[in-house]
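User: Before I run my own analysis I want an independent prediction to cross-check against. Here's the chain; please return only the structure tokens and, at the end, one sentence I can use as a sanity check.
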Amino acid sequence: MVIYIVVIYIFVAILDPYGLLKRKMKRDFYVCSVLYLISFTLAFALSMHWEIPSPSPLIVEWIKKLY
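Assistant: Structure tokens:
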């Protein structure tokens, strides 16, 4: 599963941002790259069956403090 994730993300990384650089949209390219890196990190962690902490308890605590 890990191999599939890495191969797919490499393929998308080569094809996707090329159009942004070709049109000289550097800011959009950087935003796309950061989001791509976050997405890859989460996908890789999930494929390795690592436990990802959920922000839900923190959000619940904040909502409780409001009321």
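Sanity check: The chain is about 80% helix and 0% strand.
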